[in-house]
Amino acid sequence: MGNITKIAAATIGLAAALSASAGEVEVLHYWTSGGEAKSAAELKKIMQAKGHTWRDFAVAGGGGDSAMTVLKSRVISGNPPSAAQVKGPAIQEWAAEGVLANMNGLAKAEKWDDALPKVVANVMKYQGNYVAAPVNVHRVNWLWGSADALKKAGVSAMPTTWDAFFAAADKLKAAGLIPVAHGGQNWQDFTTFESVVLGVGGPKFYQDALVKLDPKALGSDTMKQSLETFRRIKSYTDPAAPGRDWNLATAMLIQGKAGFQLMGDWAKGEFLAAGKVPGKDFLCAAAPGTANAFTFNVDSFIFFKLKDPAAQKAQSDLASALMSSGFQEVFNLNKGSIPVRTGQNMDKFDDCAKLSSKDFTETAKNGGLVPSVAHGMAIAPATEGAIKDVVSQFWNDDKVSVADAMKQIATAAKTQ
Length: 416
Ligand code: GAL
What we know:
Helices cover 53% and strands 13% of the residues. Helix 2 packs antiparallel against helix 16 (325-335) and helix 18 (381-396) packs antiparallel against helix 19 (402-412). It has 19 helices and 14 strands. A five-stranded mixed beta sheet has the order 2-1-3-13-6. The protein folds into two domains: 4-138 and 298-366, 3-Layer(aba) Sandwich (D-Maltodextrin-Binding Protein, domain 2), CATH 3.40.190; 139-295 and 369-412, Periplasmic binding protein-like II (D-Maltodextrin-Binding Protein, domain 2), CATH 3.40.190. The longest helix is centred in the middle third of the chain and has 26 residues, at 186-211. The chain binds beta-D-galactopyranose. Beta-D-galactopyranose (GAL) binds next to loops.
């Protein structure tokens, strides 16, 4: 073989080797706000560095309702993406359809069982096989405060009880500010509602009422009190709340126009992306009455069965990246959540994340760790949807009485 022929052969060989390992990953997610997009970009960077092509499949809409609709139609038409942001009991539903890939080979090689809390690992498995990988733990029961707005209104500390919360809200109102920034969408209504139930009734009541859907708990005085407290919060929101996106509600705190927001810690990602400093520009505290509890929301990706070997390799590299300690650090620093891998170093994280990490560990021991219903962690999607609708109707229509809402929630809880 002449030199030129040798070089040509080597080049062809190299190209063939590259194309055998470089594939495309199409990843469906709903991370489109400022902080979320920055977090998703970290994943894209890692995949590109591995030589793969990243096809972004972002479907806007907080909480992911629109993304799930789009995903269903793609899978039904026989053209699933490589991976999709799906979590909680919905993972089992997708796996039962027989469309998910078995990731056990990688999970064994990388010792995922050792890296994850057992409760989380179980959610990622279907019939003992890994079909999904988790990236974080979001805490949902947070209250965010705008330092500027609170200062203007003379509120000196974040409230730890609902009484103190309403007293502070009155001060904000008197100062001409919007006490509570809210976005009227059903997942946001329920994000507020579940924090109220947790704060009013405590973790045991939360479990009985919202997770076990026990009719006795749903018909109790504590439920009545929770709905009354929830309705009272609405009177501190502004008329433009209906339909507002959650990140626009966070922006109202960033701009000092509103005092509080009840939202999971993806809101922190938004403050950080706007250059705001925790403890100085904005404050984080457990939602009133919930300091000893933690509503968890674990973001994860499911992996679809693919035929093309290069696409399978890219998918496996994606799963490996998601579970890597380096990615979990940089991703969660941007996202506002904490890594789901156990024993992860928290030195680079801020005080809100450190508090979250400490409370996650402590509540796991004392029974205060509960799954978020608003964020698809607790009950079957159909039941969750039915209950959310009823709670939002109650929030939106002052003519629906507390007693009626209680009956409607109990009926919706039977939806399968
Ligand atoms: C949650 C999701 C978060 C964040 C939020 C707003 O359900 O777990 O990652 O995206 O919705 O869309």
